[in-house]
Amino acid sequence: MNGSTTQGASQQRREAVEYLKRDDQFLAYRTQQEEATNRMVQQARDKDRALAQGVDVNEEEESGATTATQEAFGSKIVVIHAGSQNLRIGLASDALPKTVPMVLARKWPENEAEEDGGEPLPKRLKIDGEMPEDPDMWFGEDFSSQYNSMSNDLKQRMRANKRRVLPNSKELVVNYNKRTPPEVISEHNDPHRVEWTEIGSEAPDYIMGQAALRIPENSVPRYKLFWPIRHGWFNEQDYKTKQTLYSDISLIIEHAIVSELGLKHKKDWPQYGCVCVIPDLFERNYVTQMLDILLRGLGFGRVCFQQESLSATFGAGYSSSCIVDVGAQKTSICCVEEGMCIEDSRVNVKYGGTDVTESFMRMMLHDHFPYSDINLKRRYDWLLAEELKQKFCTMNEADISVQLYDFHLRAFEEDTRKYFFKCYDETMLAPMGYFHPTIFDHSEKLKARRKLIDRSYDLYDGSPNDPQSAAQSSIVESAAPPQPAAAYNAVPEAKPLPTMVAQTPSKSNPVGLAGRLNEQEGTPHSSVAGSPVPDGANTPQPPQDTPAAGTAPGEGGSFGATSSIFFDPTLEKIKQAEERDRVLPMAGLDTAIMTSIQHGARGDDRKARDFYGGIMVIGGGSKVTGFMPFLEDRLRSLLPGLGKDILIGAPPRDLDPQVLVWKGGSVFGKLSSSGNDSWISQKEAHGLVSQRNDAPHLADFCSTPIIPPQPTRPPLQPHTMSGGRVYHQDYIARIRYSNALPPPPNPPKLLEIPNTGLASGQYTSAGFASRLAREQPLNVEADAELGMPIDLVGLPGVFEGDDSVLLASDEPVSIHPHDRALLRPLSTLGKPSSLAGGVSFLRRTEYMTAAGGGGHSGLRDPGKRLAPKRRKQTDAEKNEPINILRSILKGFDIAYPQDAYKGPDTVQNLRGEEITAEERRAWDHPKHPLNPTAKLVDSYPVLPDLEAITETGGYIVAKFQTNPIANQGASYDERVDASLLRVLEPTAEQEEAYRARLAEHEETGAKGPPPQPHYDYEFFLPASADAARGLKRKFSTTDPDRDDEALYDADKAEASGRRCFRFDRIRCYETYQQTGNPLEPYDETLALALHDPEPEGAGRLQKGAYYYPIVQRTFIRPKRKAQRAGMPEEEENRVDVLEIEVRDPDEREVADRQGFREKLEGEGELAET
């Protein structure tokens, strides 16, 4: 911008230019300054008004209020992360967000389960209009073959890892599931019955939140669930108009703000800002509509957007990482480097946790799941399937065995049904679908795509301008069907995705669909209008009647000649976008991660290793036991050269991976104005009309039209590029670090710095040191304060504000005896008569003297030649995993030589390490590790007593505080061996105390098992010692007279003629201490019994040390009666006599014991005795 004044032909005057040289020339800066000025003016007015009213204004309180206002800055910012299944919303000052289902229920003629003729989900195959009787044929041969193939691969993997695999595991599961009926529980006996949403006489038009998921299926009127976002896109399949779709999103967010955040007055919302988290590979229409909803519909004062992967790094505190976000219906991968998303690394594949849920149900139904009528379109069935997936699915091979589980089915106005079922490898094969996505059902994911909402187009040339990435293009190419041979000449077939990192930084341009997709810019770019045409092979040729450069006339057939002559780049881009919309992005999770990192590293091997070492898995779909170790193992098997560099971590500070993205958005929103310049205010959104600037910045998405909405663009003709109609519309542009001025006319001034170094003697002379000592005094304090670097990362509690680890300890430090001589005062030293050995002023260094032997042990004979030290040779190969496994197998070969494998190494079998003579001698003559003189008398194998396992899976140990009976004589009372403890129903006070302990355990996040309820017990003893012996004979399975009625000691009180044992009540006991974890009975305490079988007679147990699980240890004491002041003592409701009969366990009890036995043994169903 130069101005000139002409005075004759040679006189010219150049004016100084200040364009874009000051901060106040930027709109964003001016907007921030205006907000700060208005805030200061308002504060001054409030102060003047208070002084005029005679209110005493304290300056200190005012300054404290200002500080509090700055600290509470996040309380005026709403953070929104909308997903396909849940909406996470909260204030930036909140620790955790509120989670609301992203669903709205509207009045509808039919609910979602009744539509399409009541077709269930998962879809069942029908033959002649009816379902086959065998569930193996419900989902077709393709699913059955792939399911069986995955099951066989898992068995081979488990055998290779030396895990026991049962050949008849599937038969055990199918047979049990076929014959086990459900147990019916009446509604009034179900303590966990569901609270359903009541529909009154005046039914609302729509219902949102958790209440929408609990609407009865047969409600009057009917309601249908609408999910506005599906698979990361707008849900165009279930909606008839896009206005209704946008309205539902606005209603759900508005309802969450009012009900969850408590912002009930919409007139106050312009005072709030909003941070909206968007996908990494977003669509422009999605962002513009969200901006319109937040600014126009909800009336927020300002809005800023942040991508999900970048938000995750903010939440975790990482600067660079590879983020793998496994959501409910989509999985996104992106590499983040120094706070920026690498555009070519963005990947978005359309599967997630919901696909795992549906596949889990299909696999369970394939194996005769007892609840065969499950329909995921029903709301309570969908919630049940999600619960089963979260409780039972795992990716830990150690948990794969025939397991017995149960669940409760609760439907509206129906009794609760309790189902028992068995499963084997279905719990692991379902989440393994992340690595075999063809097992998922993708038939409905592209249905009605682009039915309501068209793609975004450039305002100038009309070409599609949604962001793309090179990694996504590679995945689309691999998932696309092969191109017909007649369409393109000499087009090779689609190649599989690469698995190794490129060694040279080069940008490939493959032929075919991916090659055309790669031509799309990853970030928004400026129009080609008014720009000079660059040179290059990829530049489109002008549409003249001349062949393209490098192509002879007629070469490649008639189609090639026609395409060369009549080539329109806009039409070609539209065609590519249409082809891209017809392909569902699909690849295994491990392949997608490698593709993302390959394009994110741009051929830099060091950067690729950094990304592989910083993979962070987030999202609710990844909350499967053993998911991250399994993924890490998959990547290491595919990239053996990078095995040591691959590391997958969870979010730090024990953050929930589901809320990490929202947490990063709250951190981003609380940045000051100088650290966050991406806010879009109401003024910018409604009033700014400017030229678009070519700036690669996230906020450049605002260049698409907002006012008015973009009209549907008609198909372009070949001549439209030059003389077509141009749509002038309002839009927003945001530029960052842009300066289009030419470089300065004069070069920068260079300083002359002497580079002679020490050769000149300037810095090595004595005069320089003396002068430096006079001018710069020695700062001892600074050296003592700053001279020792302290690594605060390893100190516990530093980041929580605990600085006690940095202070001196209150307890005196014990001094080593060798160092006490150094602390003696000088007056006591004198001349030592001899040198004390072992004293050193530098301990644990190379100057340590040899301790001990007396005399001058540190002196040596000068004539004796010192022998060089022999280094201890370490065999690096011993640390290899294969050698470690051989060492483990060697231990089994020593103990069981008859089972040792001596053949060649195979995938299924591995030969153990060679056994030395010393090792065999040590096994034959064992020694006590602490007392070598002790002699081995006998040894017992440690075994479980499978036949003694109860239907609860363990035993309870009750310890009395005092002697339960008053023993009058010196002999032992045999009645104690057959005593009984009867559990009493807990009182209201006990239940309240238990709920308080459980709530405290959950709020504090304490480690260890959750607390268990404390019960009261009644203690009973048999009437005589003979009765006690008779009871023990009744329980003995080896006693031939166990069924003799003469063993009983009393008759039934009801005079039925049946015999029984009579037990008398002694007293009541209460629990004062309780330990144990019922979920892990083998972690803390075990009961061990040494068993030596009798020489004559066949006992049921072999010789061994049998262990029994202790699920709980209870300490009880006599209970005293509670006497309330002023109230008469209530009559105690108690049982004085128990009449006991002994019977064999029923079928249910046998099944429960059988389930615990199979879980412990892992060898399938044992013979029932």
From TrEMBL:
One of its GO terms (cellular component) is Cdc73/Paf1 complex. The keyword Nucleus applies. Residues 459-487, 500-562, 850-879, 1121-1169 are annotated as: Disordered. Gene3D superfamilies: 3.30.420.40, 3.30.420.580, Actin, Chain A, domain 4. Its main location: nucleus. It comes from the Eukaryota. One of its GO terms (biological process) is transcription elongation by RNA polymerase II. It holds the Pfam family Actin. Residues 465-476, 520-529 have a biased composition (Polar residues). The keyword Nucleus applies. SUPFAM superfamilies: Actin-like ATPase domain. InterPro entries: Actin, ATPase_NBD, RNA_pol_II-assoc_Paf1. Keywords: Nucleus. Residues 1134-1162 have a biased composition (Basic and acidic residues). Belongs to the PAF1 family. Belongs to the actin family. This is Chromatin remodeling complex subunit. It comes from Diplodia corticola.
